[in-house]
Amino acid sequence: MCCHQISEEDLQNRERMPLYMDLIQGMQFFDPHVHMTSRTTDDYQAMADAGVVALIEPAFWLGQPRTGIDTFRDYYSSLIGWERFRSSQFGIKHYCTIGLNSREANNEALAEQVMEILPLFIYKEGVVGVGEIGFDDQTAAEEKYYRLQLELAKEAGLPVQIHTPHRDKKRGTTRSMDIALEHGLDPAMVIVDHNNEETVKEVLDRGFWAAFTIYPFTKMGNERMVELVRQYGPERIMVNSAADWGISDPLAVPKTAALMVQRGIAKEDIHKVVYQNALDAFAQSGQIDVADFTTVKAIDQSQRFEGNTVLRGGQAPRVDKDSVFIR
Ligand SMILES: [Zn+2]
Fold first, then answer.
1. If you measure from the C-alpha of residue 111 to the centroid of ligand 1, how many angstroms do you get, rounded to a whole number?
2. Is residue 312 part of a domain?
3. Coiled coil located at which positions (predicted)?
4. DSSP letter (8 states) at residue 64
């Protein structure tokens, strides 16, 4: 028998495969936390095909500690430069938040230098917040730079994107909010990220935005997310992928929307948690114009950014000015 023969079991498996793209036809998504620097062009393509029209890339830890200020400078520059350009080549509007991540706040000598250059970046076009900042190990140094950056955000009138710790999450989340209030921040300007069932109620009760990261295999799977929206409703809740260099799924937002459709969550509620709430929260920066979500679709991959393109030798550019989805 030929090895390409499809078995009965294969056929059944194929029928059970979630046709998530069918469930979300025509829907639009805004992923407010995804580290595209760590992802490939395949990811951009797949996100665009699934209906992701805009995203926010928070500044974060790259997996290996930086040893000098220049690598921070270049990284921030790439978030507002090259990565934004790369995203545009797939028809997705790219925004970012700029900040010193909690992990690297523990290198105080370097953190001091980072604080000095942050004001050069947070006022740039397309920077929709200060982030992701907050606690990792909940050290004194982390607290110090978290507080300094809250002041920076307040002064700039920018939203804050808070990374809550994965260890001792409940206490770290409460403490993050306490400190934000202590500095006089309006909870409506603060997006508390990486929530779970233990933290969500307090975050919503205190008037903050509650963001949820859908992680494959661990923590918040999208089954649990559907239950949370069923329990708490769609107000001030948003879903993100936080996809990065680790095991993660850049399609987490559209896939979660599909599961919500399948589980009978109302379309208007889904729209809020996968698009509108993130837009409303970060548009407070004054840096988001939804008209750009459409104009960025006028893709011309022959464009260049400082002489560089997303194309490799011999590839034909995709010039697809009129279509909403890249085919
Ligand atoms: Zn992140």
1. 18
2. no
3. none
4. S
CA 123 to chain centre: 20
User: What is the 99 CA–ligand 1 centroid distance (Å)?
Assistant: 11
Amino acid at 53: V
Per-residue pLDDT of the chain (327 residues; tens, 9 = 90+): 445 566 777 666 655 555 789 999 999 999 999 999 999 999 999 999 999 999 999 999 999 999 999 999 999 999 999 999 999 999 999 999 999 999 999 999 999 999 999 999 999 999 999 999 999 999 999 999 999 999 999 999 999 999 999 999 999 999 999 999 999 999 999 999 999 999 999 999 999 999 999 988 766 789 999 999 999 999 999 999 999 999 999 999 999 999 999 999 999 999 999 999 999 999 999 999 999 999 998 877 888 888 888 877 767 666 554 443 433
Q: Kindly give the distance from the C-alpha atom of residue 307 to the centroid of ligand 1, in angstroms, as a whole number.
A: 30
Q: Where are the alpha helices (DSSP H) in 123-168?
A: 140-156
Total domains present in the chain: 1
Please indicate, yes or no, if residue 67 is contained in any of the structural domains. yes
CATH (domain of 184): 3.20.20.140
- Between vectors from CA 57 to CA 319 and to CA 325, what angle results, nearest 5°? 30
What residue numbers bound the domain in which 195 lies?
25-296
